[in-house]
């Protein structure tokens, strides 16, 4: 969905006289990888800042909604969503049902964030700490039902 919108913007002016495509079809033209990585990095950070703003508001009722993130999130989100393109294509090619795809996306996201968290912790640079939460994995990843719902919401673009 995002790629289709960005493709329309990116390719604007080209093929002005080409006939409109049928609803739901893909043109075969894809945004260049660097453009997609850039957009995915910004999208991931925006989602994280929005999530942390709402989470902090829920805890403190601070109306400033001052969300936060880390610059480490840029490559983490960019590469995760970029790799999820291939995962999505692989799952769709095998005609897996939506619940299977959601489970695969959720597992991928959990493992991706856990691996980044472990790597960043080894460097002394891990920006998140879930040690204060009940169901944490190595104080780097939460394993709660609400977290699964949030992660599934983050992969709506991969459906």
UniProtKB/TrEMBL annotation:
Keyword Ribosomal protein part of the UniProt annotation: no
**Which chain positions lie within coiled-coil regions?**
none
Query: Which residues are listed as membrane-spanning?
Result: 37-58, 70-90, 102-124
Task: Kindly state which keywords UniProt assigns to this record, in alphabetical order.
Answer: Membrane, Transmembrane, Transmembrane helix
Which superkingdom does the taxonomy of this entry point to? Eukaryota
This protein's record includes keyword Transmembrane helix: yes
Q: Where in the cell is it found?
A: Membrane
Q: Which topology term describes how it sits in the membrane?
A: Multi-pass membrane protein
Q: Which GO terms describe its cellular component?
A: membrane
Similarity annotation: Belongs to the TMEM229 family.
Which PANTHER family does this one have? TRANSMEMBRANE PROTEIN 229 FAMILY MEMBER, TRANSMEMBRANE PROTEIN 229B
Report the protein name in the record. Transmembrane protein 229B
């Amino acid at each position: 969905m995002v790629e289709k919108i960005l493709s329309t913007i990116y390719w604007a002016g080209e093929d002005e006289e080409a006939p409109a495509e049928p609803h739901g079809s893909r043109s075969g033209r894809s945004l260049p990888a660097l453009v997609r990585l850039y957009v995915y990095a910004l999208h991931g950070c925006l989602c994280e800042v929005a999530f942390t703003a709402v989470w902090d508001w829920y805890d403190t009722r601070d109306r400033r909604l001052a969300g936060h993130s880390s610059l480490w999130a840029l490559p983490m989100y960019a590469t995760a969503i970029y790799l999820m393109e291939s995962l999505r294509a692989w799952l769709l090619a095998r005609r897996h049902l939506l619940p299977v795809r959601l489970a695969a996306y959720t597992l991928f996201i959990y493992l991706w964030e856990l691996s980044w968290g472990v790597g960043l912790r080894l460097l002394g640079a891990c920006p998140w700490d879930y040690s204060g939460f009940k169901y944490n994995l190595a104080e780097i990843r939460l394993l709660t039902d609400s977290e699964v719902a949030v992660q599934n919401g983050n992969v709506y673009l991969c459906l």
